[in-house]
Amino acid sequence: MSDQGWRPFAGSSLTILHTDDDPMNLRVVREILTAFGHTSRQALSGREALDHLGREAFDVVLMDIHMPAMSGIEVVRRLRASVGPERLVPVIALTADVLSRTRAEYLALGFNDFVSKPILVSRLIQSIARAASTPVRPIGRTATG
Question: What is the mean pLDDT of the segment spanning 72-84?
Answer without folding.
Answer: 96
